[in-house]
What we know:
Elements: H1 32-37, E1 44-46, E2 49-51, H2 59-73, H3 75-86, H4 92-119, H5 145-169, H6 176-185, H7 187-198, H8 203-207, H9 215-233, H10 252-271, H11 281-310, H12 317-332, H13 340-363, H14 372-390, H15 413-443, H16 450-455, H17 457-462, H18 471-478, H19 486-489, H20 498-525, E3 529-530, E4 544-546, E5 551-553, E6 563-564, E7 567-569, E8 574-576
Antiparallel strand pairs: 1-2, 3-4, 4-5, 6-7, 7-8
Amino acid sequence: MRVIFNIHVQRYLYSPPDFLSVLAVFNRPTSQTDMNNGTVGAPRNHSNYVIPGLYDLSVEDTNWVLTSSFIIFTMQTGFGMLESGCVSIKNEVNIMMKNVIDIVLGGFTYWLFGYGMSFGRGPLSNPFIAIGDFMLDPPVGDALMGQIFAAFLFQLSFATTATTIVSGAMAERCNFKAYCLFSFLNTVVYCIPAGWVWGEHGFLNKLGAVDIAGSGPVHLIGGASAFASAAMLGPRLGRYSEGYDPLPLGNPVNACMGLFVLWWGWLAFNSGSTYGVSGAKWQYAARAAVMTMMGSFGGGFTSSIYSFWRHGGGMDIMDLINGVLGSLVSITAGCFLYRAWEALVIGAIGSLFCVLAMPLFDRMGVDDPVGASAVHGVCGIWGVIAVGLFADNPVPLDTTNGRSGLFKGGDWYLLGIQTLSAFCLVCWGICSTFLLLYVINKIIPIRMDPHEELLGADLTEHRIRHSQIGLSRAISALAPIKVDLKEIAGIQPIGINPGHERSIDQLRAAEDKLQQWQSYLEQVSGPRANLKMDAGQTPSDINFKSKTAGNVFSRRNPARRSISGGLYRSNNSELPVIGSVNLPQKPEKDPNFAWVD
């Protein structure tokens, strides 16, 4: 599970090899071993130092955490495919590039300062923000090097996911350079509230908030940030000119494939959040996987019924896709705290909230091309609150601090703290994103120019030109208003080899001029000329016999030719020459066809 810490500030004397590995002022999380040994709440003491809770991983736990991290990173593929399938074709590469940037820049800043803001253990840490452990890099020989790196990688996979959620909501009209700066700084938006819920210092953690795999810190923060960014950017050009119905998808198959990849990654997302398989944790890892699937079954069923009803027997694929994703978000916070029927109910309610919220946001003028605000924001709120209603006490783990949900015989405290958590996370996500984008907009305009939006970000930002998607029409429409199109006018469409195309054009030009040459000779020579050409011959191999002059002109008889000023001269007539008989003489005059003058 995501560690829920019991904090006991204590002092220990130690002589550690590295500061990060032997900070001895905090407890570790409760484990099965502690339960069996009666040492709940005591720090794990290894000779001369205490293992911090985040790094209390056995070999098998470390293997589980690393494997889960690898699988969670494949969710970036799912997000990319889903988002590229939802936007128009002229922006699909741009949305994929944003996903790459989220990992590159977001991952770098998470190592630089993000991890330390969530889980830092310095003396200046406070209930709002952690400070310490920046630029994490334990040296060789550190007793906890493996555990530290495993913990960092796991948390990194969650951080990049939270950032990627926002990219879909900003699709098709966000300046790519501004987005790069946003991705670089958006780590702050995620890491501070993640520390509130999961960090030893966090005030929500101290109050007893429960979120196993991130319905709140990951999805709710991402969804709230997506809502704020979509609202601040404004709708795409012409989005609501013909009503509020969804726009056609660029690639529905990609969107469906993205759902499957995300579905796969979500199993690691939730099961991996047991944070190991030692003791009793392996049992709850298995339960988390099954409950994750049960929640998605309930969500998919509900969204299907809704879509059939809304569309008169037809199925809208985005209703189904986002309904399933919304149910997965809803089940994430308490993924191993529910019974099977409860997971079905929670997933079904989350899916219904999602499909109802999407058209509502459109009517509010918040243009979210992929529905991230509804999927991750609305369903994230429900997922956090559902823990306060349905959660079991997962004995012997200390995930809920011994509490149960309201419907399981618990009191109102857990429901109250879960509601408070959702409120705090929503406020932080929206306000911090508005502030961040406001600052970025002062440096780089966050909205694309209208003509760039019409042409598509693939062409204007990445010099990738798609064919048969109306680009020529857009370029023609922009020409009268004197938009500078010089930089993009010569960009070749993707999917072709320009060199091959030029060679084909040369062959076609050669064939056309050969036909012109042959047709002309037939017209002007009439009964005076006899043109014979065998297969494989070129005009340089043709013997031309003028019956009137009685002369034979051929490549093998250059002395019998007379070419002057582009005219063929004979005793009786003066005929314009279309093709030179001796072809290699002046090839420079025609770049398309070397042997034509």
